[in-house]
Amino acid sequence: MFFDNFFKKKSSGSVAKDRLKLVLVTDRANCSPDLMEQMKKDIIDVISKYVEIDLKGLDIKITQTESGEGNGSVPALIANIPISEMKVKNS
């Protein structure tokens, strides 16, 4: 029973709600899907110079967070980038 929460599929309504949130946040941040994909590619390219990335677990998104000044919410880039291994750099 404990593991049911981990393996439970999301309902289609829940998935649709998550997608709508993403669309609203990216729209408020003036970030088109094309721009988001380009940022994702650029981030992967830079980080891949130093580490091996597990692309299956990669999650990069824009979300809303409270500003440091406490005057409302602002867009924030959230990146979960699983690292398979560190690359050894030869001098």
Structure explained in plain terms:
Residues 1-6 have low confidence and may be disordered. This protein is 40% helix and 25% strand. The protein has 91 residues and is α+β, with helices and mostly antiparallel strands. It has helices spanning 4-7, 12-28, 33-47; strands at 51-53, 59-66, 73-80, 83-86. The chain has a domain at 32-91. The chain is built from three helices and four strands, in the order αααββββ. The strands form two sheets. Strands 1-4 form a two-stranded antiparallel sheet. Strands 2-3 form a two-stranded antiparallel sheet.
Which descriptors would you attach to this protein?
91 residues; globular; alpha+beta; 4 strands
In short:
The protein is α+β, with helices and mostly antiparallel strands. It has helices at residues 4-7, 12-28, 33-47, and strands spanning 51-53, 59-66, 73-80, 83-86. It contains 3 helices and 4 strands.
Q: Which blocks of ≥5 consecutive residues have pLDDT under 50? A: 1-6
Mean pLDDT metric:
76
How many helices does DSSP assign?
3
Main sheet characteristics: 2 strands, antiparallel
Bin the helical content.
Answer: 25-40%
